[in-house]
Amino acid sequence: MKNIRRHYIKTSRLTQCVRFAGRTVSEETLLFIHGNASSSVFWTEIMRKMPLRFRSIAPDLRGYGDTDDMIIDATKGMGDFVEDLVVLINELAINKLHLVGHSMGGSVIWRLLPALGDKVRSITLINPGSPYGFGGTKDTEGSPCFPDFAGSGGGIVNPQFAKYIAEQYRGADDPLASPRVVMNNFYWKPPFKPTNEEALLDSLLSEKIGSDRYPGDFVGSSNYPFVAPGVFGPANALSPKYVGDSVKNFIESANKPPVLWVRGSDDQIVSDNSLFCMGTLGKMGLIPNYPSEGVYPPQPMVSQSRAVLEKYAAQGGHFQEVVMPSTGHSPYIEQPAVFLDLLLKHVKAAKQ
């Protein structure tokens, strides 16, 4: 890819495929963290457009892209990803950096900030997963709908979608599970399609599939929607069951870099009425035996993020929320020039 350098960095934990752009050494380093069902390829357009004085770094997380195919211990929440990145940052001798995370990459950042401490100069969250995880919670405090966190984890993933990834299926015949259709209907707002659609589809299809990879394992539950999280893979790692103290640690982090929160106005994946949430689907009558909105409402994902960032600000931090109109789950791909302007202004302000 033009102006993008790809290297394999071996650390004490694994060998990560990492893409670089800009200077090989710079005091202005940005670490780009991709989301689920994608890889560092999703960042390449933004990295190519970054001013050359910056050092841009985008790793493939474990189980994604060309990084080692390794099991994710979901009981650690985002812990495996965080520990991999901390070791990578030390291996690359980075002393100061700006964090940029999209979707699940934002979920990683909620926990990565306390792990990196004063190395972090700024944070940019793009449609981040809720700090309380994905699925199974009902209010801005992240209270579980049921004690077993039913409705989160590997069991809520469409198994046909995962099967198509394993088969490297590139067609568009299945409107509910085809990776191409899911990407074009939910990653961005239709009718937008990126010019590098095939490369992005390659990236989506690079995710490793299995009961101990994606979507991971799950257990049955007597509670709606009758599945509860297992212990392996990224979907389970995103379960609120394994959030632990990460929200508290983010809010109380001694280092409080400024946070830019960018989200698409028409995001259907991370929203207060997500079409990937069992509460939303049950309320719409698409999943049988829905108990009631009072028992299992749609997870207020955006409101949960806002509530946590407001607490972060109340303890000395600062955040700015920007809604990009006419965009979906990936506004940095849909409107790269607008996003890049926001990012560069944020990074510049963080230096002052």
Q: Short summary of the structure?
A:
The chain has helices at residues 44-49, 79-91, 104-116, 159-167, 179-187, 197-204, 234-237, 246-251, 278-283, 301-314, 331-334, 336-351, and strands spanning 5-10, 15-22, 29-33, 55-59, 97-102, 120-126, 209-210, 214-215, 218-220, 227-229, 259-264, 319-324.
How would you characterize the overall build of this protein?
The protein is of the alpha/beta class and 352 residues long. The protein has one domain (5-351): Rossmann fold (3-Layer(aba) Sandwich), CATH 3.40.50.1820. Helix content is 31%, strand content 17%. It contains twelve helices and twelve strands. Strands 1-2-4-3-5-6-11-12 form an eight-stranded mixed beta sheet, with helices on both faces. The protein has a two-stranded parallel ribbon with strand order 7-8. Helix 1 links the parallel strand 3 and strand 4 (55-59). Helix 2 (79-91) packs across helix 3 (104-116). The longest helix has 16 residues, at 336-351.
Q: Reading side by side through the largest sheet, how are the strands ordered?
A: 1-2-4-3-5-6-11-12
Spans of 5+ residues with little confidence (pLDDT < 50)?
A: none
**CATH fold annotation:** Rossmann fold
Strand-residue proportion: 15-25%
Q: Specify the CATH class.
A: Alpha Beta
Quaternary structure annotation: single chain
Number of strands: 12
The CATH fourth-level homologous superfamily: Alpha/Beta hydrolase fold, catalytic domain
Q: Estimate nothing, just give the exact number of structural domains.
A: 1
Rg, Å, rounded: 19 Å
Question: What's the total helix number?
Answer: 12
Structural class: alpha/beta
Question: Biggest β-sheet: count, sense, barrel?
Answer: 8 strands, mixed
Helix-strand pattern, N to C?
EEEHEHEHEHHHEEEEHHEHHEHH
Return the average pLDDT rounded to an integer. Answer: 97
The helix content, as a percent range, equals 25-40%
Q: Which CATH-level-2 architecture?
A: 3-Layer(aba) Sandwich
Overall geometry comes to: globular
